[in-house]
Amino acid sequence: MTITITAFEASPDRGQGLARDTRVRWALEEVGQPYAVRLVSFRQMKEPAHLALHPFGQIPTYEEGDLALFETGSILFHIAQRHPGLLPADANARARAITWMFAAISTVEPPILDLQTAKLLEGDKPWSTERLPMVMDRVRDRLKQLSARLGSADWLDGAFSAGDLMMVHVLQRLKPSGILGEYPNLADYVARGEARPAFKRAFEAQLAVFTSRPS
């Protein structure tokens, strides 16, 4: 059965690999599964056909036979369970890798998204100059904790796993802010993820969508 995912027809990140379909592309590349991509416009994302796949009108979605999934955490968990390469064989190590997946999207990503909102959507508000430093401090608190846990290790828990894939992609959102550079081991951690051949293929596929569009 062919796997089909959805992605932005015109990604807001302009091909930087920050859109969440990159996570799914990367996971499928890591486990060696071919997939098709159906591009959707912002208008199509709010139409009944897409809402039947994703009730909140977002991307990505994942279709395989009669299975339809949304939310990248769920999609990655499904891919990692079904195909070898993203979860360890040892039961305890497997559970820890899954825990890191949840930590990435439930603990680390929320303050990072809050920072993006504060800069991009609230920057013109009169209270923005007071709120922004507090938001940045919350991001730094999380990064300090994560940096201490990672230490000098290459990956979060032994070999590269779905937990690292999710965490690296979450941290990539910080690169434009410069905050990630304050934690050299985390910056190196992200660079190691980006150096993986599977990530490069996923990134190039996402970038190709942007570069193929007329300027």
Structural account:
- By secondary structure, the chain is of the alpha+beta class.
- It has helices spanning 21-30, 42-45, 48-51, 72-82, 91-120, 128-150, 162-172, 184-195, 197-211; strands at 3-8, 35-40, 61-64, 67-70.
- Helix 1 (21-30) runs parallel beside helix 4, helix 5 packs antiparallel against helix 6 (128-150) and helix 7 packs across helix 8.
Globally, the shape reads globular
Number of contiguous helices: 9
DSSP strand content: 5-15%
Structural class, from helix and strand content? alpha+beta
Helix-residue proportion: 55-70%
Distance between the termini: 35 Å
Question: What's the structural blueprint in terms of helices and strands?
Answer:
Elements: E1 3-8, H1 21-30, E2 35-40, H2 42-45, H3 48-51, E3 61-64, E4 67-70, H4 72-82, H5 91-120, H6 128-150, H7 162-172, H8 184-195, H9 197-211
Parallel strand pairs: 1-2
Antiparallel strand pairs: 1-3, 3-4
Helix pairs in contact: 1-4, 1-7, 1-9, 5-6, 5-7, 7-8
